[in-house]
Amino acid sequence: MNKLIKNGIVVTASDVQRADVAIENGVVTAVGQNLPDNGAEIVDADGCYVFPGGVDPHTHLDMPFGGTVTIDDFESGTIGFAAGGTTTIVDFCMHEKGKSLQHSLDIWHEKARGKAVIDYGFHMMVGDLRDEILDEIPKLVEEQGVSSFKVFMAYKNNLQAEDKTLFRVLQRAKAAKALVQVHAENGDVIDALVEDALASGNVEPVYHALTRPPEAEGEATARAIELARLAGAPIYIVHVTCREAVEAISRARRRGQPVFGETCEQYLVCDHTDYERPGFEGAKYVMSPPIREKSHQEALWNGLFNGDLMVLGSDQCSFNFKGQKELGKEDFSKIPNGGPTGEERMGILYEYGVVQGRIGLSKFVDLTSTTAAKLFGLFPKKGTIAVGSDADIVIWDPNVERTISAATQYLKCDYSLFEGFKVHGKARDVLLRGEYVFQNNEFVGAPGTGEYVPQKPFEYK
Ligand SMILES: NC(=O)NCCC(=O)O
Ligand SMILES: [Zn+2]
Ligand SMILES: [Zn+2]
Which superfamily, per CATH, for 55-375? Predict the structure, then answer.
């Protein structure tokens, strides 16, 4: 049914204004003052912000990793994302080495179809260098709506690619109008440090962080940027966690190189002491790169503020504490990497960014929605509230005070990284193409209503 959102404050990456939003057939048809209702259902947003639905460009749902599979799939995961205000994700399709990219893409479509409650696109991870694989890159851009390709510089003997692979992917992606994303950590150095730790009998979760130092991230970030410069290609650095990596990105951007940085909310608010929690609790925070010493947070906030970091992704990649994280009870290197972060991506940035005065409302929207939509070929269908855009809209109640807890989250994962955090603000209503997914804080969506959104070729203006 057509809707008219009234009395709210509409926030986009460029404006904050008191306005009504008219929705017909799933798209925004007008934004302005005192719009006529024309028989539409009135949605009262009095006292609330009206944000474009969040776009999370870094998610891993139903992903095999570390000898197990993420506990959240496209159903529970996307319900969790929607609860937090995200209406579009771009999930990483993991290339199975030895098979075609198309083969893996077909599997990822199968995982999502009939399950997702919000819209989704796919990035493609490239795992090997065969000519047939590289030849698929332009085909995926032109025919399959995949215009972002991920290369891992870490996870030795598993996902890690050689520099040559990264360089070739950069060359081919550039020609095909695609964007290359890198997980930038020096996997060889980390492998040596892990060997040393285990040989000394250091098996506790904290050694995950101690064997993946910030220098290993800074070095790989700078190397990836140089390889992109050599290839004349743009590059996107996923999940930046430390001062060294921000500085490498900043240097490149100052000399005019198209380098785009992403961080994730957990790196802004969690710190190294989380690994020192009693017993095996530190395993909950095992992800790569690891959570850093608190002193790195300032560099991340500065990067978000000044534009060196342009996107907030979640890197949602959840494994239960019981039974899954416990796989590494005797050896930290066997703890599956990742955490349940997708549901609170916007909530954490709203509290620690907007409420605590580090960023303004338009910047919040830019970081959680607009720039990701632009970089990954979804804008202006996604990422804004404008005439012709999909009516993916969040009515955000800033007056709510709440305590984050696994007991109340929608994700299936059995813990929250942010347990006990007290925050302001909550997505009250979440609309996907004009239909409620959440209404008055209740899930009212249905699995399968989320649709695949093909990316346009990469272009950044
Ligand atoms: N981040 C993490 O630990 N797990 C997900 C895979 C990745 O993004 O590296
Ligand atoms: Zn990664
Ligand atoms: Zn990731």
Answer: Metal-dependent hydrolases (3.20.20.140)
